[in-house]
Design a protein that fits this description.
mainly alpha; 13 helices; transmembrane; AEC family transporter; cell membrane
């Protein structure tokens, strides 16, 4: 129960940032162009810095066995979501024209911007590095399988993947973290402080951008789509609970097991929206999914936390 209360309090802080973003957009302190520029700064500067601080600001209590176990759990998480997504969209009776979009929303959650502060609140700064491994697997899968699903949605032609898409600041930050972990160099205090300040901006700004998305929508649109409630219930409660029950049967470090279960329960991520816009597709479904799942996480995440 104590962990659930910690998560609930942290979520209230994150929701405060989100409401601040909504208010700023409504007051025209923040424009569409400004929000777009801030999003690029988050993706390319602030979030990569946040990932690196997971190792530079930690107490160094990592071992290769724990890192490998954590990475394996990250691979299992995404592999299981990819495997169940075809069944998932059929059980929910999603229209065939929307199945790929729902699959993308199921698989690619907000592991970084919400996952990092919540995991840090429970397990300390050391755990940020472990979340970074999930984001590394996320990036590799998103720029391969995620692109494939979007291409499949847009065209019936054969899909060709471009490996250069994997070269991005998020993947680079994860690789830098791995190098620092492997070599254990003495990182200058000034560099640590610099990265801490940069990384500290990622979470409030990213939640403010979610608030901007909320400001652009009709609340009636967000709260009257019954199919999205079904989606949220299965994605953010049923699947994490099943994962938690299964992982109890294995001798896995409680912190690593807890991180994995919480990763299953995270709300929708913003990357699918950005990709939908980039592909010239209707991004409203993904946007509504982000807002509703983020709002409902105030209820679902404390419940999931109670079970770990």
């Amino acid at each position: 129960m104590e962990n659930s209360w910690i998560i609930f309090q942290k979520l209230l802080v994150l929701f405060g940032f989100m409401l601040l973003g909504t208010f700023s957009y409504k007051r025209r302190w923040l424009t569409d162009d400004g929000a777009s520029q801030i999003s690029r700064l988050i993706v390319n500067i602030f979030n990569p810095a946040l990932i690196i601080t997971g190792i530079t600001s930690s107490d160094g209590s990592y071992s290769w066995s724990s890192v490998m176990t954590n990475t394996l759990l990250a691979v299992i998480l995404f592999a299981s979501l990819v495997a169940v997504s075809p069944l998932f969209v059929r059980v929910l009776r999603i229209k065939s024209s929307m199945r790929n979009m729902y699959s993308v929303m199921l698989i690619f959650s907000n592991l970084g911007f919400m996952g990092i502060p919540l995991i840090e609140a429970l397990y300390g700064k050391t755990a940020i590095f472990y979340v970074g491994m999930y984001t590394l697997v996320f990036n590799i899968l998103f720029y391969t399988y995620g692109f494939y699903l979007f291409e499949k949605e847009r065209t019936s032609e054969k899909v060709h993947f471009q490996w250069k898409k994997l070269i991005n600041p998020g993947v680079f930050a994860c690789l830098v973290s791995l190098v620092i972990f492997s070599l254990r160099p003495e990182v200058p205090g000034t560099a640590v402080d610099f990265l801490d300040y940069l990384g500290g901006a990622a979470v409030p700004l990213s939640m403010m951008m979610t608030g901007v998305s909320l400001a652009k929508m009709s609340l009636r649109e967000v709260f009257t789509e019954w199919k999205m409630y079904q989606f949220t219930f299965v994605k953010m409660l049923v699947i994490p609970v099943i994962a938690g029950l299964i992982i109890r049967n294995f001798s896995v470090d409680p912190m690593l097991a807890g991180i994995m279960v919480l990763m299953y329960g995270m709300p929708n991520g913003s990357m699918p929206v950005m990709l939908a816009v980039d592909y010239g597709m209707d991004s409203s479904l993904c946007s509504r999914g982000i807002v509703l799942t983020t709002l409902l996480s105030l209820i679902t995440l404390p419940i999931v936390t109670y079970l770990i």
